[in-house]
């Protein structure tokens, strides 16, 4: 585990070591995510690599993991996130709840960090650093907007990091009606790949849609049966807006950006990832259930469908890479070691990483990179306490950043890469994942299924280059 975690530590800058305050980090999951006590202990933030929160805490950081509605809209998730951090009953707002015809109040939380927003003895405010993966990044931005512009509440903090976030939406959400069953089955597929056994009635997973009257998973329901019941709700019908699918869509993200601003007093950091230009999946570097989604995403750029250019073609299996950099309204600057407030500071792009690996789901040894860089950014702003286990010299950090960039290049993988990855799996989840990925029969079946599904979904050829890629892959 130390080998796997070393990249994150090496990416922590000297600024972290000299930070003087102790603001905690809050990790916010994305679409279909889960909390620390769900899925038999399989961590969203860590996956087959272990427990990211626990490892960071062992290094001296204060870290909390939020658990909010995995299929809810950004509005509802933002309300839940606030209540969970600060403590108290979730209030979705009188007007919002009435407009969308759901309950105004939700769960009552004890609070991950109830002191948030209180004054220290020196008059400074206790703040937090927010790190969101995928939809979690959208949720962070909306909560910040609601607190700063819409209501009274504690200052959010001075920075927020979005990792593989569809800040401008993802075309995958726009195509939900075409491949909805595939997306619905994604969670079950992921946990089966790592051997959690999704058919078990003992498996805990909460869609957290109580405001809609959708009850929790019953004792005699399998996970598949539960998700079938959840997705049969009318809130997932086409045109419904107070739900994740709308928030994640290109149109939904654009609509939300009409009032969710790039705030002038917050530092924004964006981390991108992509697989290949044409985005035909690489079965040695990509989580198997994301294969078909990657091809589908790569096909949805033609001007006669959504009016999007080919710039929207590259993706990480769930989000178009171009959408990860910034929202529709803020300025984008390339991060050069100096952060600019009120702008999107674009970090180094991680090539060859699929969407799940940014949250440390099944993936390679360098997966801690985005999280370490996020903490590096926070430390540079004085958001974190210094790690207990010493400092990192600048030369070593720069050397490791170069090494990490090389490791992130997954354009031309070799079967040996996967074998090397699986030499020393650290837990049973990793063992099951490696056994699955190394099964050539399953890999070949996945390619065949991906081809058939995409052809049926799009009813068109993806691209001449994709066809060439198919031939090259056999």
TrEMBL record:
GO terms for cellular component: extracellular region. Its main location: secreted. Residues 393-415 have a biased composition (Basic and acidic residues). GO terms for biological process: lipid metabolic process. It comes from the Eukaryota. Keywords: Hydrolase, Lipid metabolism, Secreted, Signal. The keyword Signal applies. Residues 21-151, 159-355 form the Lipase-like C-terminal domain. Pfam families: Lip_C (PF24708). Residues 1-19 form the signal peptide. Residues 386-416 are annotated as: Disordered. This is Lipase-like C-terminal domain-containing protein.
């Amino acid at each position: 585990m130390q080998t796997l975690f070393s990249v994150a530590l090496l990416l922590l800058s000297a600024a972290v070591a000299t930070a003087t305050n102790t603001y905690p980090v809050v990790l916010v999951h994305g679409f279909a995510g889960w909390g620390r006590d769900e899925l038999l202990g399989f961590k969203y933030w860590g996956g087959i690599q272990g427990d990211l929160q626990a490892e960071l805490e062992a290094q001296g950081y204060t870290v909390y993991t939020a658990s909010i509605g995995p299929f809810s809209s950004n509005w509802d998730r933002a309300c839940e996130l606030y209540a969970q951090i600060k403590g108290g009953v979730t209030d979705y707002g009188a007007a919002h709840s009435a407009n969308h015809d759901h309950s105004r109040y939700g769960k009552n939380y004890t609070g991950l960090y109830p002191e948030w927003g209180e004054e220290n003895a020196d008059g400074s405010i206790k703040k937090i650093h927010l790190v969101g993966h995928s939809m979690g990044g959208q949720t962070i931005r909306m909560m910040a907007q609601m607190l700063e512009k819409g209501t009274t509440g504690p200052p959010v903090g001075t920075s927020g990091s979005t990792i593989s976030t569809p800040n401008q939406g993802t075309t995958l959400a726009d195509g939900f009606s075409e491949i909805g069953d595939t997306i619905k089955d994604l969670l079950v597929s992921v946990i089966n790949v790592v051997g959690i056994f999704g058919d078990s009635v003992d498996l805990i997973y909460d869609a957290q849609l109580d405001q809609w009257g959708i009850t929790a998973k019953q004792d005699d329901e399998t996970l598949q049966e539960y998700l079938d019941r959840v997705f049969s709700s009318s809130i997932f019908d086409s045109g419904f807006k107070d739900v994740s699918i709308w928030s994640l869509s290109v149109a939904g993200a654009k609509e939300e950006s009409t009032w969710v601003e790039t705030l002038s007093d917050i530092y924004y950091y964006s981390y991108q990832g992509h697989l290949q230009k044409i985005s035909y999946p690489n079965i040695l570097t990509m989580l198997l259930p994301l294969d078909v989604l990657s091809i589908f995403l790569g096909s949805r750029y033609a001007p006669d469908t959504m009016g999007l250019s080919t710039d929207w073609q590259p993706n990480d299996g769930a989000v178009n890479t171009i959408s990860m950099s910034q929202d529709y309204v803020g300025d984008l600057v390339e991060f050069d070691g100096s952060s600019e407030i009120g702008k999107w500071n674009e970090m180094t792009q991680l090539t060859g990483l699929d969407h799940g690996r940014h949250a440390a789901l099944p993936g390679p040894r360098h997966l801690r990179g985005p999280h370490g860089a996020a903490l590096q950014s926070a430390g540079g702003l004085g958001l974190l306490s210094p790690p207990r286990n010493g400092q990192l010299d600048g030369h070593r950090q720069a050397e490791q950043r170069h090494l990490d960039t090389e490791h992130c290049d997954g354009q031309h993988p070799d079967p040996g890469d996967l074998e090397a990855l699986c030499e020393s799996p650290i837990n049973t989840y990793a063992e099951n994942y490696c056994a699955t990925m190394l099964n050539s029969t399953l890999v070949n079946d996945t390619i065949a299924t991906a081809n058939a599904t995409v052809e049926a979904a799009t009813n068109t050829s993806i691209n001449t280059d994709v066809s060439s890629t198919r031939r090259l892959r056999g």
